[in-house]
Amino acid sequence: MPARNLDQLPYYDLRKQRKVALVTGGNSGIGWYTVLHLYMHGFVVYVAGRNSSRVNRAMKDIKKEARTRIKTLATDQRHPVGELHFLSLDLTALKVVEKAAKRFRSLESSLDVLINNAGVMALPYSVTEDGFEIQLQTNYVAHFLLTMRLLPSVKRCRGRIITVSSIGHNLEFSYFSLSQSFNYKPNMLFTWMRYAMAKTASIQFAKMLAIKHPDVLCISVHPGLVMKTNLFSYWTRLPIVGIFFWFFFQLVGYFFGVSNEEGSVATLKGALSTELEREWDNGKYYTTGGIESKPSYVANNLDNAASTWLWTIHELRDRGYEPT
Ligand SMILES: NC(=O)c1ccc[n+]([C@@H]2O[C@H](COP(=O)([O-])OP(=O)(O)OC[C@H]3O[C@@H](n4cnc5c(N)ncnc54)[C@H](OP(=O)(O)O)[C@@H]3O)[C@@H](O)[C@H]2O)c1
C-alpha cells in the first residue's frame, strides 16, 4: 500500500468514538508521518519523546501539514482530525519510562494503539544508567517495560501493539544471549551486531506478546530503507568521513530507499488495517508498505524468543522493575 493509499484505512470521529494512540519517537522521521496520519484519521495521539521543544515543534508542524492536506480535499472527503499531546519519555532511563506510563494511565483509561517506534542505530558502545547497552535499552528493553506497563490499557479495548524493528536484524546470524555485549573493536563493525540483536529482540518480543496475550494484536515491522531520517546522523556528522557516509546513505536511498512517509506505511497498516486479525496475524512480521514477510531464522525461532523474554524479565527484576 503506497502512502497515497493511506486514506483507505479507517477514519474515526472523536466526537463519537475516542481512539487513542501512543507513538514513541513521533517527533522525527518515520514516527512524524505515523503521527500525522493517525491524527488525520481522528486519533488522540500521545507523542512520546525526550525533548519537549522538539516534540512540541513537531506537533505544531504536523497540525499545519494536516490543515494544508485537508484543504486540498473535496468537502465530502474531509474528516475531522484528532488531538496531539506531548508525553515526556526518555528510553535511556527506566524510571522515566515508568513515570511516562503512569502519567499516561492517569490521563487515559484505554490505549487502542501502542507504537514502539523510537530507536537509535549503530552508536558507539555505551551503557545507560540502568546498565544496559544503549541500543539495546532504547530499541528494546525500555519498550518492553513501557509495553508491560501499558498492557492493561491496551487489553481494555483489545488494541494493537506495533513494534518497529529493522531488516538489519538479519545481521544476527546466530542466537546470542543479550548478556553478550559485543563491546569489541572496530566499533564500525560490532555496533551493527548490537543493533541487530536489539532489533531481533523486538521481533521476538512481538511474537511472545502475541502468544501470551492473544486478545491483543502484536506485530513487528521493518519500515523500509528510509535514508532521510535522523537515524544516520551519528555517522553523517563524523568529522571528515561523515561526508562519505552521507554520500553512501544517499546512494543506498536513491536505489533502494523509500520516503519518510512511505516508511510509515507498514506501521500505519499494522495499526489501522481492518484486514489484519488477531486470530491469523498475531506475532507476524511485515516489511516496507506492510507486506507480510518472514524474519530471520534466529528471530523466528520460538525457543530463542522465549529465552529473550526470560532474560529481559530477570534483568528488569534485578533492577527493581517487576514487568508482569
Ligand atoms: N530509517 C531507516 O532506514 C530504518 C530502517 C529500519 C528500521 N528503522 C527503525 O525505525 C524507527 C524510527 O527511526 P527513524 O528512521 O524515523 O529515525 P529518527 O528520525 O532518528 O527517529 C528516531 C526517534 O526516536 C527517538 N529517540 C531516540 N532515542 C530516544 C530516547 N532515548 N528516548 C526517547 N526517544 C528517543 C528520537 O528522538 P530525538 O528526536 O529526541 O532524538 C526520534 O524521535 C527506529 O526504531 C529505527 O530503528 C529505520
TrEMBL record:
The keyword Transmembrane applies. Keywords: Membrane, NADP, Oxidoreductase, Transmembrane, Transmembrane helix. The chain crosses the membrane at residues 30-49, 234-256. The keyword NADP applies. GO terms for molecular function: oxidoreductase activity. Gene3D superfamilies: NAD(P)-binding Rossmann-like Domain. It holds the Pfam family adh_short. Belongs to the short-chain dehydrogenases/reductases (SDR) family. This is KLTH0D11462p. The lineage of its organism: Eukaryota, Fungi, Dikarya, Ascomycota, Saccharomycotina.
